From TrEMBL:
PROSITE patterns: HTH_ARSR_2. It comes from the Bacteria. Residues 1-72 form the HTH arsR-type domain. PANTHER family: ARSENICAL RESISTANCE OPERON REPRESSOR, TRANSCRIPTIONAL REGULATOR, ARSR FAMILY. GO terms for molecular function: DNA binding; DNA-binding transcription factor activity. Pfam families: HTH_5 (PF01022). This is ArsR family transcriptional regulator. InterPro entries: ArsR-like_HTH, HTH_ArsR_DNA-bd_dom, HTH_MetalResp_TranReg, WH-like_DNA-bd_sf, WH_DNA-bd_sf. Keywords: DNA-binding, Transcription, Transcription regulation.
Length: 86
């Protein structure tokens, strides 16, 4: 999830990072969005997710996520082969 703090991400990027099916990733993201933790932006057929900085517990979530390893290098590699148009 740290990648969402660092940049906006498409579902296809999460599928590759977590090695999960697209429906499973979409279901988890929908739950996060329903609770206001992440927000989405649509661009054509693609949906991009990022952290909702207006979430009341954003600072707390950010502190937790800061203890996770960065996915920046993995995200950089994915962007070269991305299925979506960033």
């Amino acid at each position: 999830m740290k990648s969402v703090f660092e940049q906006e991400c498409c579902v296809c990027e999460f599928v590759a990072i977590f090695d999960m099916s697209q429906p499973a990733v979409s279901q988890h993201l929908r739950k996060l969005k329903d609770h206001g933790i992440v927000k989405e932006r649509r661009s054509g057929q693609w949906i991009y997710y990022s952290m909702n900085t207006d979430y009341p517990y954003y600072a707390f979530v950010q502190q937790l996520v800061n203890h996770l390893p960065s996915q920046r290098e993995g995200m950089s590699n994915l962007q070269q082969d991305s299925c979506c148009e960033n």
